[in-house]
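Q: For a teaching session next week I want to show students how multiple molecules come together into a single three-dimensional assembly. I've collected the sequence lines for a complex. Could you give me the predicted structure tokens for the whole thing so I can convert them for display?
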Amino acid sequence: MKNIFFSLLFICSLGAVAQIDRSTQPKPGPAPEINLSEPETFTLKNGLKVIVVENHKLPRVSYTLTLDNPPIAEGEKTGAAALSGALLGKGSANISKDDFNEEVDYMGARMNFGSQYASAGGLSQYAERILELLADAAIHPNFTQEEFEKEQDILIESLKTNEKSVEAAAGKVSRALLYGKDHPKGEFETQESIEGITLADAKAFYNKAFIPNNAYLVVVGDVDYKDIKDWVTTYFKDWKKGAALSNDFSNPENVATTEINFVDMPNAVQSQVIVENLVDLKMSDPDYFPALMANQILGGGGEGRLFLNLREDKGYTYGAYSSINNDKYGKTSFSASASVRNMVTDSSVVAFLEEIDKIRQEPVTEKDLKNTKAKYIGSFVRSLEQPSTIARFALNKETEGLPEDFYQNYLSKINAVTIEDVQRVAKKYFLSDNARIVIAGKGSEVLENLEKVSFNGKTIPVKYYDKNANNVAKPSYEVAMPEGLTATDVFNSYIEAVGGQEAVAGINSIMMLGEGSVQGTPLKLTIKKTSNNQYLEEISVMGNVMSKQVLNGDSGSVSKQGQTMNLPAEQIKALKKEAAIIPEMAMLGDETITLKGVEKVDGKDAYVIQLTDAKKAFYATESGLKLKEETTQQMQGQTFVQTMLFDDYKSVGGVLFPHKLSQSMGPQNIEFTFTEIKVNEGVSDADFQ
Amino acid sequence: MKKTFFSLASILAMSLTIQAQEVEFEEYDLDNGLHVILHQDNTAPVVTTSVMYHVGGKDREDGRTGFAHFFEHLLFEGTENIENGKWFEIVSSNGGTNNANTSQDRTYYYEVFPSNNLELGLWMESERMLHPIIKQDGVDTQNEVVKEERRLRYDNSPYGQFLFAISEQLFKNHPYKDPNVGYMEDLDAASLQEFQDYFKKYYKPNNAVLVVAGDIEVDETKKMIEDYFGPIPSGPELERSYPTEAPITEATRTQFYDSNIQVPAILTAYRTPGYGDRDAYVLNMISSYLSDGKSSKLYKKMVDDEKKALQIGAINLEQEDYGMYIIFGLPLGETSLDTLLEGMEEEIAKLRNELISESDYEKLQNKAETNFVNSNSSVSGIANTLARNYMLYDDTNLINSEIEIYRSITREEIKEVANKYLKPNQRVEVEYLPKKEEQ
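A: Of course. Below is the structure for the complete assembly, covering every listed component.
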């Protein structure tokens, strides 16, 4: 085993300091020495290459078998790969499934299989038997109809468990759109495709793909190289070479101009936003290190610009990151993503594009680059703690066609990246003008603003897709509005629905007593109104008045927890509108009020009326009744939407009144049930003093 | 100052005994009460600096939940000498990585650096303990971030509210009843003063343990620790008293709705003893027996043989005051939740009524040995274990001796413990169901 020692390129200032000064950040000590050892390797006749890293610190061993195959398209049989992987490890031709599982568990070992992958690990005293079982199960699998059907059911069921996952939908659609549904990286499993697969299909996939031609077995741990060579030679000698796999696919292209691809998910409380484009990048490319640096600065972690902007500065999300992949077999992707709350979906898109554009247009600072290099160097040093790192380096050198000294030169390559390099690769790989912005979210809450998103002076077109990446029409909650209909028509049908103009005009006063609770605390609500601009709303808890709002002609006040404030004229004017017994009567013919469209409210179609800039009301298209009011408020730079739902309309004095109100703002929800509503009685002028 | 060097006596209790690497460490207290644990391992040029505070989700008053988790975020906002927003940059621009996590019982902050930045790690953690900046700005920003975290992890995530659904049933008085992340309205309602008071109360050297592990020189490290942490004033000792729970004597059945799922789940849970109780170790073994590995009883029967379950699992979720023993299952196809529940109870009934087989017992021992070997495979993992063992188990050397506890557990004891905690009348049952939308 040869050892290479070299010293880190840290700049270090060394000097004894007698007293600490905590107001200045401590400087790093002398750079630690790095020891990069080389693993030992050998190759079997069938092509299997074995990489062995001996490390005796802990009495354990791990085996990882990877097949360096090109991506394999499955077409209408998508799912055959997953099923073939699921059928591996169920015993072998030589040992029953139950005995196999029993023995693996007995040794305290772990063993996992995938369609082109196998791994195992355990205590080194069982090293040989673990390897033998791994090889046996991988090379002589036990595919049975019974197990196949079971795995088929499980795969279908697991699709269902992800059916409503916003993140899963966004991921699936983004890959399908980016690469195309016929590309191995874009195709996905559906219930139909899985149901159409037979045991023979799964076997066929295994026979085609599970071949030693480009296979690597990595062994790390408390083992002896000579033993490993003996064991591998014995247990893997029956593995037969297969036909070379083709790597011939349609070549996906980026979109000509940036577009939004929207997937409607009515259950979403957050939108998943993915900004992505295709790239050609391999580890062996000269651009590899500059691209790592550029991505790191943009969105590589907690100090990336995306995180600092979308999370730390704006509080839109729990985390926003970007990543750039590399693939020697063909196109791969750059992507930036975050789960953001519904209300800021549009602003997040803009923030993403601005950051991506900025790193393309402006050189990064000296400091940004220096810090990023330090981060990579640190991560390289830290990774050396695990013996598997050495094995990973060796595997990458083999599979990615890297020069022999790639990892010896790793740190100096990173240090050689310049500010110009970063901007050059940002322009080349982060395509803010040719990006797909895939968003899965609640259309009824986010679409209106999303359609207005513009960037660099251009509105970004929005296209709509279902969860299977099929192009669909714009979701229906904003369409289907009869032509020529006006807000006044909607108000008229509302007035008609609650009892007609005459009945409504006959009401001079109303008193409503309601009960509700917030987080278990009972509340009482009293509302009184007259047709003379008099209005009272009072909320009390166990006899104590918590809040009170009064309007009496041209004066009015608000009291909260003992403090009373007179209302300014502007608010009195606004309150007057709402204070009417049936406010819609007063709004007939008001041209500042517009009909915006149709949206769903709790599954019912409703006309949306914009009452003021901040307030909307929703009237059922079918019954004409008012279902909801929505008020947008600004507080501390944040936008909040408060909603009031009306339900349980019952007649009092010939006019229908909602007997149930639920008010919600953010996570808080208060429901009131009116126990008593009286018309033309129980109200006197004294109530409004 | 107490000083202890441990050397593990080799115990050959069983025919199969692993000579796992012994973790050597040294521990002592600073004058201000900060407990310090040092572990030297110079094989790789990496060092972990970490602080565990004895404060978690359960340290709160009604109406003010989620504070400890909130502080996990807030204490990255900056200190008197670390500019707001620069924490992550300082760490990563010096080749390090850092994070924090909060449980109901404790909060853990850590950095991992190349070893030439040990002093930097100590400086940062001492800054955080001595004088973090707690201002309205930071509170407002982190409040939004925490809300997003809640939406991401729980509200928008399939089965994300699984633990809430159980803990609100298993606990009626003890703060474990509320989510560790807290209720949003509590955080919204809390004033800046309340946050500042919370810091003063809990984030004191005498309520914390500092671990430095990895490529260090002991004497030099001790001096730096004294320099950076020595001047931090200690606070009054905390009085800890949490409401207790009456034993569960009758099974309850409740429903919980999650709009993010399509396949329902059945959850059943039992209240079990807290950290360090010998029975908790036995319960870990029982979990392993029931659902760890393909030959485990529940997996083999319900997923593999009978094909009734998509997934099944048994977890002994350990906490300081009470544990939660949880078994969950997702049905496959037409299987009803009750069928799953019956299947689970059948296997637990066997544990209560019969001794497990000799060969299953050996299997459990092998699994425990494997876990033991794997548990000490990284220096940062060792640091975390040392801190936890000291703070929550009151026995730092458990890192070396825990395996002896498992080795000493008998088949009879497994049966006894199953009878003590896992009877049908001691469980809560939660039907975790898809929330139907009105379309």
